[in-house]
Amino acid sequence: MPTIFTKIAKGEIPSYKVAENDDFYAFLDINPLSQGHTLVIPKNVEDDYIFHLDADTYMGLCAFARKVALAIGKAIPCKRVGVAVLGMEVPHTHIHLVPLNSEADLDFRKKKLELSPEEFKSIASTISAEYEKL
Questions:
Q1: Which end of the chain has fewer CB within 10 Å, C or N?
Q2: What is the pTM of this model?
Q3: What are the residue numbers of the active site?
Q4: For the range 53-62, what are the long-range contacts, defined as Cβ-Cβ under 8 Å and sequence gap of 24 or more?
């Protein structure tokens, strides 16, 4: 059975897409730690552990995530973009890219932001525009 992230990448479940290519998909986390919190996934591999990915998929995912992180850094005012790979919530490899102004901003136990659909759309559009410039 496909994971929720596979369904998102296939367009079966709506998302706030930030970037996409043939193999990878980036979209805003709907329970963000900060504005611009983005998830990056492989589209064609559902393994839940990043280190189980074959070398080409792993390296491709990291390169794609790097480009998305650079776009986030240009679109969202922050000191840097943090990276977290937990893989406990959804059984599909995913990388969290989180705009940070302090280390505390990467605490997954803290209360998540509540954003309107319009805010999500605006943030996704802004990051996507920066991604296209890279």
A1: N
A2: 0.97
A3: 94
A4: 53/93, 57/23, 60/23, 60/24, 61/24, 61/93, 61/95
DSSP class of 57: H
What is d(CA 3, CA 102) in angstroms, rounded to the nearest whole number?
A: 32
Q: In what order do the strands lie in the sheet with 80-84?
A: 17-20, 24-28, 38-42, 95-100, 80-84
Structure tokens belonging to residue 9:
């990448």
**For the chain, counts of helices (H) and of strands (E):** 3, 5
* Euclidean distance between CA atoms 97 and 7, whole angstroms: 20
CB count in 10 Å sphere of residue 88: 7
Could you tell me which of 82, 80, 119 has the C-alpha nearest to residue 98? 82
